[in-house]
Amino acid sequence: MNLLTYVMHLVGSGAFAYYSAAQIRDSKTRPNILAGFQLAESGSVPFLTALSERAAAEGDTWLAQKLKQHASDETRHGQIFAHGLKQLNKQVIDWKSQPQTTSTDKSKQQRSPFFAAFFEGYTPEQLKPAVIDWNVFMGSTYILELDASKDFPRMAKALPDDEPIARNLKLGILNVAKDETTHAAYLYEAMTKRMSLTQVQELIDEWRTRKVNATFAFASNLLQGKSPNRSLVQDSMPSQKDSQLIGT
Q1: pLDDT, tens digit, 9 for 90 and up, residues 186-240
Q2: pTM of the entire predicted model
Q3: CA 31/CA 92 separation, integer angstroms
Q4: What stretches of 81-134 adopt beta strand conformation (E)?
Q5: What is the 8-class DSSP label of residue 60?
Q6: Residue ranges of region Disordered (predicted)?
Q7: Nearest 5 degrees, angle CA 177-CA 12-CA 223?
Q8: Most buried of the four, 18, 20, 80, 209, by CB within 10 Å?
Q9: How far apart are CA 225 and CA 192, in angstroms?
């Protein structure tokens, strides 16, 4: 990684840390950011499960097991954030109950400036679990998991200690961060199994640069007011009592 990219990484990471901490500290914006995390964590489960099955079919039982555990962890992470939302009497919005949008509007809503920049040059078809290049998956996911392992503790620290619900959420987020550290470790090991350490570093540098560009693309859209400001939550509906998910 060159010096300019490194400096931009520090600036971008600092700005994101400030933004996310402010969002989760504020009781008004906390539900929306928790919903975003729930959707992201739970949404990755089918992808990781399919990758685990692919690795097994290719004879890489070690990677298949790691991916299976990764998918299981993400399922639990989604439950932790869902539980945090329920403690605030909120839940992820039921999209099926929302007015139908046109295919054009839907594609615009689903387009993410962050991931568009992060995966620039790759088509959605190339990123599907059945065909994605293993190096692309490992390099990109390693960077995301490594950064998440540092971002989540910062967000947890921003939560007030004098509120029981916030304190409980903090414990859950710290557990998520611990898992992200484990995920980054196995992905790094997986890369070293497939290439030399020099090639691993080159791959990491490539995806670090992509992450820096993606972060600034996200920030630019945010500052220009282009990022969608829609709510991801609705009031909780009556349901069966939750099992205790936090702190286990």
Answers
A1: 999 999 999 999 999 999 999 999 999 998 887 777 776 655 567 888 887 765 4
A2: 0.86
A3: 9
A4: 90-92
A5: -
A6: 229-248
A7: 115
A8: 80
A9: 41
